[in-house]
């Protein structure tokens, strides 16, 4: 396990000012996390499932069932979708949170956020255009057959340009690129952080109904007060103090 007593994993303290690959995190010892690493290696949110009401338990445990085939995206779009989700969420090996299936399910069922940007088509068309544009960029600018065919560094470069709104040729001309990034990331992150494996990774205790919370003290620092079901993380720096010192 990496030495987590030093803040060398903080981007601004590294020579390249980039975050290291998450493999520096400890191996998960209880429960499942994406790639079986995380800051809370001895935490498994499912151990508290008996405190959830039946409706909550049914909804959460259903997210652990093996995902079915995609219903919205085509077989031609699927490789780009998976490559995009893997890249933006740093999931490069199993186990993976099934984010592509989550996105696909929402789009297939028409479960949107209740609003739409005036200068974008609806989310279904936005996703299809983004995947087409990613493949075009990989081909035109990097000589790759597709975005999914590109190496990890090339994918990250394209994603960085997408996030900054710096792509403007081909299919990108049909989109407000920055807002398209927002649409895609909002749905991808919602799929990731609604899954119990992601909760294990961040030490989230899961639904608080009907259990509720017992502790009202601070959550960080030397006087931290934890709920009985919470565990200490593998790193002990106070994130608020780290930000105040300008280290991230």
Automatic annotation (TrEMBL):
Residues 1-30 are annotated as: Disordered. It comes from the Bacteria. Pfam families: Gluconate_2-dh3. Residues 1-19 have a biased composition (Basic and acidic residues). This is Gluconate 2-dehydrogenase. It comes from Mycobacterium paraffinicum.
């Amino acid at each position: 396990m990496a030495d987590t007593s030093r803040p060398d994993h903080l981007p601004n303290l590294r020579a390249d000012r980039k975050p290291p690959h998450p493999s520096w995190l400890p191996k998960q010892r209880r429960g499942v996390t994406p790639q079986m690493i995380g800051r809370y290696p001895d935490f498994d949110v499912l151990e508290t499932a008996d405190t959830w009401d039946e409706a909550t338990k049914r909804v959460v445990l259903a997210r652990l069932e093996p995902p079915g085939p995609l219903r919205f995206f085509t077989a031609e779009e699927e490789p780009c979708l998976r490559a995009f989700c893997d890249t933006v969420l740093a999931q490069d090996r199993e186990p993976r949170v099934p984010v592509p299936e989550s996105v696909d399910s929402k789009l297939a069922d028409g479960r949107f956020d209740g609003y739409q940007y005036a200068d974008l088509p609806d989310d279904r068309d936005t996703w299809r255009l983004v995947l087409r544009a990613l493949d075009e960029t990989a081909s035109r600018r990097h000589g790759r057959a597709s975005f999914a065919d590109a190496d990890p560094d090339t994918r990250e470069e394209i994603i960085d340009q997408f996030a900054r709104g710096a792509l403007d040729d081909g299919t990108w001309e049909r989109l407000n690129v920055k807002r398209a990034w927002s649409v895609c990331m909002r749905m991808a992150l919602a799929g990731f952080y609604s899954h119990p494996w992601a909760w294990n990774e961040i030490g989230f205790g899961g639904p608080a109904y009907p259990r509720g919370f017992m502790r009202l003290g601070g959550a960080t620092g030397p006087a931290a007060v934890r709920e009985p079901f919470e565990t200490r993380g593998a790193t002990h720096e106070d994130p608020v103090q780290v930000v105040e010192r300008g280290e991230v």
